[in-house]
Amino acid sequence: MLSASALVGFAMARQPINSRFSEPSLGFGPGFLAQRPKAAALIAQCITTWTEVELQTARLLAAMWNANSEPVVALYLSLANARAKREALDAIASFVFSGEQTTLYEAVMRAKQSIEKQRVDLAHGLFGIVSEDPEGVVMISTTNRLKHMLDIDIKRTSIGVTADDFHTIRDLTFHYTINDLETILCETQHIHNIIMRFSGYAVMVINRLNGAELLFQTLLNEPLVQRFLFPSASSPKNGT
C-alpha cells in the first residue's frame, strides 16, 4: 500500500550566496573554475552521468513499447527537449501501467525531472569562486551575468559605477559546496539505478512475469522515490 506520509519535492542543493556569506568576495571569468579542481571534477561527473540516465530512460521507453530495438532508442534520444521526451514516455506508460503502477512511474519521473533541473544549471551556468570557500564554487546564469555586465557598462558611460553596482551580482549568484555537488552526483547516480531497475519492472509487467510485485515494493521504498510519491487517491491495487 502506498505511504500517505510520502514527501513531495526537495530543496535544491545550491543556495543563494547571500544566505551563506554576509559580504562574499566573488570572482567570475575563464580560468576560475580551474582553481577549484575537486568541484570541477564533480561538475563534470554530474553532467556525464546524466547522459547515462538518458540512456536508461531510452531503454525504459523501449521496454514499455515492448520493442528493445535501436530505432526506439534513437527516437527518444532525437527528441529536442525534456518536455517532448517526458510526453513520449507518458503516452506509452498510460497503456502499460495502471493504479499504483502509474503512481510509481510518475514518482520516478518527478524525481528524474527534479534532478535534471540541477543538471541543467550545472551544464549551462557560468562558474566562479568565492574567497570564503576554498573548495566550493559559485554559479550565475548566463542571462543574469550578461544583464549585470550590461548594467555596469551603461552606468560606466553615464552616471559612473560604484562598488554597490558591482556587488549587486551577489543577489544573482548561487553557491555550491563540495557537499552540495556530491549530493547532486549521488542522486544522479541513484536515479540512474532506479530507472534501470524500473525498465526491468516494465518488462515483468508486460510479460506477467514472477517477481514483479517484489520489485515494485523495492522501488516504491526507495528514499528518492518516496520524496516524490503522491499518496494514492484510489484504493490500493496490486503492484504487478
Give your account of this protein's structure.
The chain has 240 residues and is α+β, with helices and mostly antiparallel strands. It has one domain (15-227). The protein has helices spanning 37-64, 70-78, 82-96, 100-124, 142-156, 163-167, 178-207, 212-220, 223-227; strands spanning 15-16, 26-28, 126-130, 137-140, 174-176. A 5-stranded antiparallel β-sheet has the order 1-5-4-3-2. Helix 1 (37-64) packs across helix 2 (70-78) and helix 3 (82-96) runs antiparallel to helix 4 (100-124). The two termini are 12 Å apart.
Topology:
Blueprint: E1 15-16, E2 26-28, H1 37-64, H2 70-78, H3 82-96, H4 100-124, E3 126-130, E4 137-140, H5 142-156, H6 163-167, E5 174-176, H7 178-207, H8 212-220, H9 223-227
Helix pairs in contact: 1-2, 1-4, 1-7, 3-4, 4-7, 7-8
What's this entry about, in short?
This protein is of the alpha+beta class. The chain contains 9 helices and 5 strands. It has one domain.
Strand segment tally: 5
Task: Let me know the average pLDDT.
Answer: 87
Gyration radius, in Å: 22 Å
Sheet with the most strands?
A: 5 strands, antiparallel
User: How many domains comprise the coordinates?
Assistant: 1
Indicate the overall shape. Answer: elongated
Low-confidence stretches are: 1-11, 231-240
Q: Roughly how many Å apart are the termini? A: 12 Å
- In helices, the fraction of residues equals 55-70%
Order of helices and strands: EEHHHHEEHHEHHH
Q: Total helix count?
A: 9
Portion of residues in beta strands equals: 5-15%
What structural class results from the helix and strand content? alpha+beta
